[in-house]
Design goal:
Layout lengths: L1 H14 L4 E2 L4 E3 L1 H14 L7 H10 L19 E3 L6 H15 L6 H12 L15 H10 L3 E3 L7 E3 L5 H4 L10 H14 L4 E5 L3 H4 L8 E6 L6 E9 L5 E6 L5 E3 L4 H5 L5 E9 L1
Parallel strand pairs: 2-3
Antiparallel strand pairs: 1-2, 4-11, 5-6, 6-11, 7-8, 7-11, 8-9, 9-10
Helix pairs in contact: 3-4, 4-5
Length: 283
C-alpha cells in the first residue's frame, strides 16, 4: 500500500520530521562533524552557472545516503540535530540548502553551517522548543519566504487554490512523543489554528507536464496531498536530466537519496494520494 510505505516512512518523519557539540542546543556526533569537514572541502571548489545548478550539485553529492526516519526526534527536549549519515525527505532539502548557503559565504566553519541550518528549520530562524520547528512544509515555505530565502512561484505557474484544515499532528497526538506534554501540544494546536486561515496553492498533477519547461533545476518540489489533515507528503529538488525532462532528486523512502527514474509528472501518477505539486525557488 502506498499510504503505508510513503506516509508511514516519510510523512510522519516529515512532521515529527551521539554526543553534543557545544553550540546552542545542537546535537551532532563526532563522525558527522568530521563528515562536514570532508564535504565542505570537496564542495568549496564547486562551479555552477546558477544558484539552482549549485544547489543540485550539492544535492547530488548526497546520492546514496541512506534514508533514515525520525533523525530529529532525539532526547527529551528539542535540539538542532545534524546528521549527514541518514536523511529523510525534509532533512535532505534542509541540509542541501544550508550547505549551499554556507558555500556562498567566506565563512565556511561548522558553526556558520549550524546557524544556516537553524535559520532554515525553525520559525523566524530561531530554535525555541519543539513547536518552533517548521513541521508543516507549507508553513516552512511561508517562513523561509518571509526571511527572503525562497519564493513560492506556484501561483505564477498557474496553480489552483485549495482550502483544507491542516491539523494532522493535533489529531494524531499519539504519533509524536514530544506532544505528550500539554505545553507543546497546545502550542502546536495554536499553530494549526493559524494555518487553518491559509490556502494552499498547487499545480494539479495532470497539468505538471504542461508547465515543466518553466521549472528549473534546484526548484524545491513539494508533493501536495489529499490525505486529511496534511498539506504535503514529500519533498525534493527538480533536476533537469539529459533527456530534457524534469526528474525528482530526493531522499526516497525506498532506501536512499536518488534521482527518480521517471520524469516528475510520470512519477507522481504512481502516488494515489498526490494531487499535485507546490514549487518554491531558492533565492
Amino acid at each position: 500500500m502506498y499510504f503505508s510505505s510513503m506516509v508511514r516512512k516519510c510523512i510522519l518523519v516529515f512532521l515529527v520530521s551521539i554526543s553534543p557539540v557545544a553550540f546552542a542546543q545542537t546535537t551532532c556526533s563526532p563522525a558527522d562533524s568530521a563528515l562536514y569537514t570532508i564535504k565542505i572541502a570537496a564542495l568549496k571548489e564547486l562551479k555552477a552557472a546558477t544558484l539552482g545548478d549549485s544547489i543540485v550539485k550539492v544535492g547530488v553529492s548526497f546520492l546514496g545516503t541512506p534514508y533514515v526516519e525520525k533523525t530529529l526526534e532525539i532526547g527529551t527536549t528539542e535540539s538542532l540535530v545534524i546528521n549527514f549519515k541518514g536523511l529523510d525527505c525534509t532533512t535532505f532539502v534542509e541540509n542541501v540548502l544550508a550547505f549551499s548557503a554556507t558555500l556562498r559565504t567566506q565563512e565556511k566553519s561548522f558553526d556558520n553551517f549550524t546557524k544556516n541550518l537553524e535559520t532554515i528549520r525553525y520559525r523566524n530562524g530561531k530554535s525555541n522548543g519543539y513547536p518552533s520547528r517548521l513541521h508543516y512544509f507549507t508553513d516552512w515555505i511561508r517562513d523561509n519566504q518571509k526571511l527572503g530565502l525562497v519564493k513560492d512561484i506556484t501561483a505564477n505557474l498557474g496553480g489552483k487554490e485549495l482550502h483544507k484544515p491542516i491539523n494532522f499532528m493535533g489529531t494524531h497526538r499519539n504519533l509524536y512523543p514530544f506532544l505528550k506534554g500539554n505545553e507543546n501540544f497546545n502550542r502546536i494546536q495554536k499553530i494549526e489554528s493559524e494555518l487553518a486561515k491559509e490556502t494552499i496553492c498547487y499545480i494539479p498533477k495532470n497539468e505538471i507536464k504542461n508547465i515543466e519547461n518553466q521549472l528549473q533545476s534546484g526548484d524545491i518540489i513539494a508533493l501536495a496531498t489529499s490525505i486529511k489533515g496534511l498539506d504535503v507528503t514529500h519533498t525534493g529538488f527538480a533536476i533537469r536530466q539529459p533527456n530534457g525532462r524534469i526528474h525528482l532528486l530526493h531522499a526516497s523512502s525506498s532506501g536512499e537519496v536518488k534521482i527518480s527514474k521517471e520524469p516528475l509528472s510520470a512519477y507522481l501518477k504512481t502516488i494515489k494520494s498526490n494531487i499535485g505539486i507546490i514549487v518554491t525557488r531558492p533565492l
